[in-house]
Here is the input.
Amino acid sequence: MKTIALIGCGRILNRHIEAIAANPGLEIALVCDKDEAKARAAAERLGVPFLTNYRQIRGVDIVAVLTPSGLHPRHVSNVAELTDAAYIVCEKPLSLTLREAYEVYRRVHKAGKVLLPVYQNRYNPLVAHVKELIDSGRLGAIHQFICNVLWNRNNDYFKIDWHGTAEFDGGVLYTQASHYVDMLHHFFGEVESHKGEGGALRGLQVFDSVSAVLRFRSGTVGTLNATVDVYEKNFATEFTLIAEKGTIRLSGTNLNQIDFWNVQGLEKPDMDFKLDHQYGKGHDTLYKYIVEEQWDMFPSKEDVLSGIRLMEMLSY
Here is the structure.
């Protein structure tokens, strides 16, 4: 049985609790939040102890950092250096700047710990299937893509203390669309060049809308559009891939359905799946890989750094 401590009792906490519960072999040992009321409420719900200072964590195998984005570098590095946990799970993004990301990896490595970044959309069955088709060559040359993350976050969302701030949020690419930035790197590799524009249309410190044209070293080109300014509710998450031997369009809450499939020699797979919340089921798979110690299923350092490089270039 692997034991885990959760740092940060905010919006994403419930998803991690559910995913851990879905994986026999994992057990939540304690929770931590600087807000004692939040920490106490989560602890009472789970029947575990709580802390308000993560530096005091001892005796667990894994620590999951679920705090505001801009605090991830500090929290991950301190957990690596000041606790005895061997593995550190970090919610997206690892950092808001490339410099901080390099520093985090250096400090974690020096402390002899293992960093496990959370990019759970990689484990979406349809995303994994497309990745397999790309890597196998079944699609031939990959020509172009269109990726749209067209969401709503209302004004109440941005009243949460750190949301919409340059210091802790980073903007739409970091807080909403970072999984899709990661997906593009997962599919196509390193970005060679880009042109993009962002708009802070609601008076935030960060961009709430970004449009970019990207060229990858592989030669693939495409567009990425992300916004939180859609009226009233999320409108669409969609990804279209145009390749030498096929065209595929995915859509749905977390790209959970196939809208179009025309691939040479391959029938449309019966892989659509339903979701009961916006995060998908990828966290379940992530924790399954932790139980099974399949560390190679987590994003590589190179992929994480490449994604942060792109987000930073388009956001700051």
Summary: The two ends are 43 Å apart (CA to CA). The longest strand covers residues 142-150. The chain has a mean pLDDT of 95.
